[in-house]
Amino acid sequence: MSADLQTQFDALIDADERIEPRDWMPDAYRKTLIRQIAQHAHSEIIGMQPEGNWITRAPSLKRKAILMAKVQDEAGHGLYLYGAAETLGVDRAELLDLLHTRKQKYSSIFNYPTISWADVGAIGWLVDGAAITNQVPLCRCSYGPYARAMIRICKEESFHQRQGFEILLTLSNGTPAQRGLAQDAVNRWWWPSLMMFGPPDADSPNSAQSMAWGIKRFSNDELRQKFVDMTVPQAGVLGLTLPDPELRFDEETGHHHFGEIDWTEFYQVVKGNGPCNEQRLRHRVRAHEEGAWVGEAAAAYAAKQASREGVAVA
Ligand SMILES: [Fe+2]
Ligand SMILES: [Fe+2]
Q1: 48, 75 Cβ separation under 8 angstroms
Q2: How far is the CA of 215 from the centre of ligand 1 (A)?
Q3: Separation of CA 229 and ligand 1 centre (Å)
Q4: Ligand nearest to the CA of 125
Q5: Is 25 left (phi over 0), alpha (psi -120 to 50) or beta?
Q6: What is the pLDDT of residues 271-282, one digit of tens each?
Q7: Of 48, 91, 167, 198, whose CB count within 10 A is highest?
Q8: CB neighbours of 92 closer than 8 A, spacing ≥ 6?
């Protein structure tokens, strides 16, 4: 019986069809997806903080409105993804609990501070840009609900990337001080953005299984290279430099060669020792606790409506 189910599952994967919540799936496949989707959802909502930091200080009403919409989009991405995770039989409250107790992680990029307005531009351009590179292939992920959530998310992410680029372009063409802010932000966000693709393939033992299951379509290093190749010409248009003396186009490979990433820094931030890890988590837990009454009120209201309907039916 179980062998039949496994055969059916393998056939769906081999045919590049989607696995749906009603389908049987191996336990390890389910667990991998829950971990990945939850981590992705956590990243979306924690990612609201570094940019939310600038909503009250955006340089114009228009910039403020755009940034508020963007931060709200990220909340929406979190909702789609928690919804997708729930189709695998976990509860959203349970996942948030795992985030708050540090048993599940979120993307380390959000543990860096946003110290100037230009950081909002650099995040949009580089961080959302790296996210898109990672996420476009996830639109073809073998798990249906995750793939469908990613299609909606990617449409919004590409808009985020362009708004970040436009902020930097404006600053870059502004006063020398504004241009300096843009360059400084790019200098600080470039390397952490490259780290967003995860450790080198050789140190990423679970990647092969995820590729075999059709969850992952490209390796970490392939995605990182794609991102560098896409971003270097854009930096040229911005008139900004990328902080890597080794960066050059390699005629032979047709790709941009880039310098060694500081993986010690990466693992330090993953372990919780980044500049803002504590602050981000503390803020998240506080927001959760202070907002608990909203959920309680909604549940009480729903229960009241249901009991009234029950009376009417009786
Ligand atoms: Fe997002
Ligand atoms: Fe985004």
Answers
A1: yes
A2: 19
A3: 22
A4: 2
A5: beta
A6: 999 999 999 999
A7: 167
A8: 82, 85, 86
**225 CA to centre of ligand 1 in angstroms:** 21
Among all bound ligands, the one having the nearest atom to the CA of 43 is 1
* SS3 label, residue 142: coil
Amino acid at 176: P
Assign 156 to helix, strand or coil. helix
Helix (H, G, I), strand (E, B) or coil at 59: coil
> How many A from CA of 256 to the centre of ligand 1?
27
Both structure tokens of 229: 């190749």
CA of 83 to the centre of ligand 1 (A): 15
**For residue 13, which of 98, 114, 140 has the smallest C-alpha distance?**
140
Least confident of 68-77, 110-119, 302-311: 302-311
Number of Cβ atoms within 10 Å of the Cβ of 88? 18
pLDDT digits (tens, 9 = 90+) for 81-96: 999 999 999 999 999 9
Say which ligand is closest to the CA of 135: 1
